[in-house]
Design brief:
AB_hydrolase_fold; 12% strand; single chain; epoxide hydrolase activity; signal; hydrolase; Rossmann fold; 18 helices; 452 residues
């Protein structure tokens, strides 16, 4: 019998080599993990240790994390292409592969980092959670304080193009009397804000936190604006009606009457007696409820299951891209931006492929795919059900929003409707797609509140 444990035997050599490789791989894995979780922000700490103080923040991502990101993208194991010629099975393979190719070879995160660091950014702790925000004060007198909230799958990246038009309106042909002091926070669990470690950080608590934030910044009166989840938070703020809140502007209004919501839930055809606008809205909502809400259902019920969002950049990107508008999924503007050209005659407007990559890369670098998804789990009401808000409300209806809210429904949902306008172009990502038009809508919608 041969002695397979002899130092010179082939079996022994194989064992030693495998063991050495395993130890080395383990060490490299731990090193990579440590680098991936290293700090990507620089925060000025207050001398007295008061975490509720307003602390300046700058972004600097270690190069090792960007190298790791590109490596992971290139190592993606791809599935076969879809068996259909449209997007009815999900984000098409060709779209994601083109996106991934650009992400791993041509995309420059440092350009986004520079844009972020060019703006005043801060952190402050509210109810035990760090809240990140951009705060830009206008140079013009009598500016209205305005807090603007992003949505999902967005982030503060969505709002970067509206900062200057809203704080410096005269540079865009608008009046100095329409200027704003702008506050743009990252939702809890998003971007550079803290990740909640306990339950409760849903729209209601966030709405109250925004009031704390604005008062902490010295604003005794202010307005609020939002689309998507930001619109949800605005609606909740409107319903809570704190005395400091002058009014709200929403580009994602919650107007669906109870009888319409009941018919949609039952899968019924449009009720009789609807106007043309109401019927169109019903058809858009019916299509969205039947075909385009799977992501919201998963995040609203089982967000922790989405481990791929933390492990694979391509899994994260495809999940975030799979958000529809009033007609198609993925949204027409997103698809056109990814390919860098109009797709099916639809323009991306001002939205570019790098804009979309800035947003998704922020999710990846902060590892917030799952913590952001939990915001849906923390939300316990229908986002589109009639808001029942009595404070002054302005509503802008963009043609490619998930649905075009009819004026009749809007007046029932918002009992003090001070502005309603159906805009000519733009969609679900209006601030991204049409920043100048979006800024004009915010100015017009909130103008009457300046006399209060």
């Amino acid at each position: 019998m041969s002695d397979n444990t002899s130092p010179q035997s082939p079996s022994r050599r194989r064992f030693v080599n495998v063991a050495a490789a395993t130890v080395a791989a383990g060490s490299l894995s731990q090193l990579a993990f440590a680098e991936t979780n290293s700090s990507i922000t620089q925060i000025t700490q207050p001398a007295n240790g008061d975490t509720t103080a307003i602390r300046p923040l700058r972004v600097h991502v270690p190069e090792s994390q960007l190298i790791d990101l590109r490596r992971r993208i290139k190592a993606t194991r791809w599935p076969e292409r879809e068996t259909v010629t449209d997007d009815s099975q999900g984000v098409p393979l060709a779209m994601v592969q083109e996106f991934a190719r650009h992400w791993s070879t041509d995309y420059d995160w440092r350009a986004c980092e520079a844009k972020l660091n060019a703006l005043p950014q801060f952190i402050t702790e509210i109810d035990g959670l760090d809240i990140h925000f951009i705060h830009v004060r206008s140079k013009h007198e009598n500016a209205m304080p305005l807090i603007v909230t992003h949505g999902w799958p967005g982030s503060i990246i969505e709002q970067l193009k509206i900062v200057d038009p809203l704080t410096n309106p005269t540079a865009y042909g608008a009046s100095a009397s329409d200027t704003f002091h702008l506050v743009i926070p990252s939702l809890p669990g998003y971007g550079f804000s803290g990740k909640p470690t306990t339950t409760g950080w849903g729209p209601e608590k966030t709405a109250r936190a925004w009031v704390v934030l604005m008062k902490r910044l010295g604003y005794e009166k202010f307005a609020a604006q939002g689309g998507d989840l930001g619109g949800v938070v605005c609606n909740v703020m409107g319903k809570q009606a704190p005395p400091e809140l002058l009014g709200i502007h929403v580009s994602f209004p919650a107007t669906v009457p109870p009888e319409i919501a009941k018919a949609l839930q039952a899968g019924d055809p449009a009720p009789s007696g609807l106007s043309d606008d109401e019927k169109h809205a019903y058809e858009q909502l019916n299509s969205a409820f039947k075909k385009r809400r799977a992501y919201a259902l998963e995040m609203g019920t089982r967000p922790q299951t989405l481990y791929g969002l933390a492990d694979s950049p391509v899994a994260l990107a495809s999940w975030l891209l799979d958000h529809g508008d009033g007609y198609v999924q993925p949204a027409a503007a997103l698809t056109s931006a990814v390919f860098g050209r109009d797709v099916n005659g639809e323009s991306a407007g001002s939205l570019t492929r790098n804009d979309v990559l800035d947003d998704i890369t922020l999710y990846w670098l902060t590892n917030t795919g799952i913590s952001a998804a939990r915001f849906y789990w923390e939300s316990h009401f229908n986002f589109l059900a009639a808001a029942d808000v009595s404070i002054p409300t302005a509503v802008s209806v963009f043609p490619r929003e998930n649905y075009q809210a009819p004026r009749s429904w809007t007046e029932r949902a918002y009992h003090n409707l001070i502005y309603y306008n159906r805009v000519e172009k733009g969609g679900h990502f209006a601030a991204w797609e049409q920043p100048q038009l979006f800024a004009e809508e915010v100015r017009a919608g909130l103008r009457s509140l300046r006399q209060q």
